[in-house]
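Supplementary Note 3. Input sequence used for the single-chain structure prediction.
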Amino acid sequence: MDWSVFAIFLAACCAAAATGSMFSPGAWYRGLDKPSWTPPDWVFPVAWSVLYLLAALAAARVAGMEGNAHGMAFWAMQIAFNTLWTPVFFGLRRIKAAFFIMIGLWIGVAGTMVSFWALDWVSGLMFVPYLIWVTIAGALNASVWRLNPNEAAQPAE
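The predicted structure, written as discrete structure tokens, is reproduced below.
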């Protein structure tokens, strides 16, 4: 594995992670109705840190392999949707739109996992926790949308 390639993928993950600090949940999110199974706030940065490291490692392992085009395309798709979700949900407060972005993210993560698995099962395996987490996040987004129908229709102030 080329560590300079890993650093490039990690930089893309750090850019996606930066939106979390630019668009923090804040009082608006704390005031929303959420399902009882919502993870505690501290879980999110811990989970995302691990997932971003695994995603960068997996991509770096696959990047130099023959036949990686679909995997790299899906990796680009997932990091783009990942970067987009936070500003739409927390910045614009568009809960419904964020849910549809989450669907794109889920497809990108699942596509990356399957594509990577076909080339290197370890890299594919590194995406399993990410797919589980995005499934939970998507269910949480859908639940918040359902529990807050009036908020979902309001633009950010």
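The chain has one domain: 3-152. The CA atoms of residues 38 and 136 lie 9 Å apart.
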